[in-house]
Amino acid sequence: MLPMQTMYSSDGWDSYSWGFLAQANEIEIMLHNPAVEKDPACGPLIDFIALKALKTPHRPKGNMLKNGNFEEGPYIFPNTSWGVLIPPNIEDDHSPLPGWMIESLKAVKYIDAEHFTVPEGKRAIELVAGRESAIAQIVRTQKGKVYDLMFSVGDASNSCQGSMLIEAFAGNITLRVPYESAGKGGFKRAKLRFTAVTERTRVRFLSTYYHMKSDHSGALCGPVVDDVRLVGVRYP
């Protein structure tokens, strides 16, 4: 089920993504309203449906994370300027954002360089619901070895202004990265150095604060995360 209690965009439409593992060569797709509205005469409007085959992510040379640049992800409809929401509680084995889990109560937004400012490449993630909006990936590590987690933090040039704060978690270490947004685009690099305490390390990102666009639309927004890299440190 897709939770749709929150309207994220100010355009009157939200695009949602959903990932699944195909069990046969032919499948049936059915959209159903469970009718939880108080007014039975009301319900969600549906338009534009697309099906995209996602590639299995691999760890590129120089990065222990899969899909760390978020280039592989849900389909974005042409001529839509509000991104695509990835719903919460999505595990990595059927995530529309390959390699990543959505570990939160609210959705995260998948954005494109055609309509937003993206730090690197053509795609990025916007954490639009404060601490209720988080992404994570579990990676194999060597206990006692030192690693560097590097990433970009910025704003999407979508009138999301204010003092932003990204929290990055790896091992037993938390890094808080402040970013002052003027809502006009930009980014900064950050690095978290940690020592692995187990053979599997969870890398996690969330936004500390809640933000709304400064255009008085009431639309939720937040900091952008992109170009995430994890590497071992040979001589710490």
From TrEMBL:
<dbReference type="InterPro" id="IPR006946">
    <property type="entry name" value="DGR2-like_dom"/>
</dbReference>
<keyword id="KW-0134">Cell wall</keyword>
<dbReference type="InterPro" id="IPR052437">
    <property type="entry name" value="Pectin_Meth_Modulator"/>
</dbReference>
<keyword id="KW-0732">Signal</keyword>
<protein>
    <recommendedName>
        <fullName>DUF642 domain-containing protein</fullName>
    </recommendedName>
</protein>
<keyword id="KW-0325">Glycoprotein</keyword>
<feature type="domain" description="DUF642">
    <location>
        <begin position="2"/>
        <end position="52"/>
    </location>
</feature>
<feature type="domain" description="DUF642">
    <location>
        <begin position="64"/>
        <end position="230"/>
    </location>
</feature>
<dbReference type="Pfam" id="PF04862">
    <property type="entry name" value="DUF642"/>
</dbReference>
<keyword id="KW-0964">Secreted</keyword>
